[in-house]
Design goal:
The protein is mostly beta strands. It has a single domain (28-375), classed as Neuraminidase (6 Propeller). The protein contains 2 helices and 31 strands. The protein has a 5-stranded antiparallel β-sheet with strand order 1-26-25-24-23, with no helix packed on it. The chain has a 4-stranded antiparallel β-sheet with strand order 2-31-30-29. The two termini are 34 Å apart.
Amino acid sequence: MIVIAVLAILLIGWQLWFDQSDVVSLPAEGIVNFLKVTEGFEISVFAKDLPGARVMARDPFGNFWVSRTKDGIISTLEIQNGKVVRQGDVLKDLNKPHGLAFDYKFPFSLLYAESDKISRLPTYSDGGPEKIADLPDGGRHFTRTLGFGPDDRLYVSIGSSCDVCVEENNQHAKIFTLDRVERGFGPLKEFARGLRNTVFFTWSYVDGRMWGTEMGRDGLGDELPPDEINILKEGGNYAWPNCYGKNIHDTNFDKNTYFRNPCMEPFETPSYIDIPAHSAPLGLAFIPEEGWPEEYWYDLLVVYHGSWNRSEPTGYKVVRAKLDAKGKFTGFEDFVTGFLTDGKVLGRPVDLLVQPGGTVYISDDHAGIIYKVNRK
């Protein structure tokens, strides 16, 4: 009877929380009870007590490294038999750490990006961090994301310093690469421009093309501009701040007069896939063949972090973008929902680690949780 009474009090407390705020905090196990995953899969709490959890990376031992941007921390999760047995903070007092990437040529070398620089850390050793590149600090979009491409170059994304503007610093709103050199990495080289806030990117294992999510600007209402998924090509101009979506001219910002349409190929590259405005797409990852249902092969999982500036909230879920073997888009399907329940924000998903065997890990910077979704 005592147990039943305690459970009843907890349920009443949760309901009061729901009634009083649009943003709520529940125990991790309470949140996961509201989440719904597509048929054939199940979801559980893999790790918790990770406020602001953003990017995840796995080292050769299978342990997780997690950036916690708001708190200036990079944490580790020690894994044994598929479970977290210990967690702790390895690096503290950082300047908004975000991107993490292990160097596959030096598997115990972790590269991490703060707002103002990229550093390299020898893990499981007494060595300290070494700066390998300076980045432009601050601005509205201060996250810097890292990844090694199939061409062996290191990539870093740098968002715009503003909502919509002409940048004074030409390193903003772009993606750069760094070539390997004898003792590390060379200088930043521009790869693509006109990208307001491409926080996450990845590569297709089928053809090696680079894909990235892109957030549209604010101030044009609930339905404009669309957020985007782009196929990113070297030398490409993705047209921010003057254009958005399928090469639509942003006349609210750009009031110049032109002899030609300022938003047209081959000068500017349109979005590949449009996403409902203010969904705030973040992490994306291609689904491998091994251990996943055949109908998922070649598809892309995409995180919608969720709106903060829309009269009716949107996003707050993970979706599956259906693609054929050549990358042709055929539609979206919900994969995980429930982060927004009855108008209340329970969580905000961020990053994805998709694994063979039908497993994907999802970070949540609102709830401070890493979820595990696996095939039943």
